[in-house]
Amino acid sequence: MVDKKRGMYKNLTSYGDNGFSIFLRKAFIKGLGYTEEMLDRPIIGITNTYSDYNPCHGNVPDLIKSIKSGILSSGAIPLEFPTITVHESFAHPTSMYLRNLMSIDTEEMLRAQPMDACVLIGGCDKTVPAQLMGAFSTDLPVIQLVTGPMLTGSHRGERVGACTDCRGYWAKFRADEIDQEEINEVNNQLVPTVGTCGVMGTASTMALITEALGLMISNGACAPAVSAERKRIAEQTGKIAVKIAAEDFRPSKYLSIKNFQNALTVLSAIGGSTNGIVHLTAIAGRLGIDINLDDFDKMTKDTPMIVDLKPSGSGYMEDLFKSGGLPRILVNLKSYLHLDAQTVTGETIGELIESYKYNWDQNIIRTTKNPIFEKGSIAVLKGNLAPGSAIIKQSAASKDLLLHEGIVEVFENLDDLAKRIDSEDLNVTKDSVLLLRNIGPIGAPGMPEAGLIPIPKKLARQGVKDMVRISDGRMSGTASGTIVLHVCPEAAVGGTLNIVKSGDVIRLDVINRKIELLLSDEEIELRKLNKPLKKKSNRRGYNKLFYDEVLQADQGVDFQFLRPIE
Ligand code: FES
Question: Could you tell me the pTM of the whole model?
Answer without folding.
Answer: 0.95
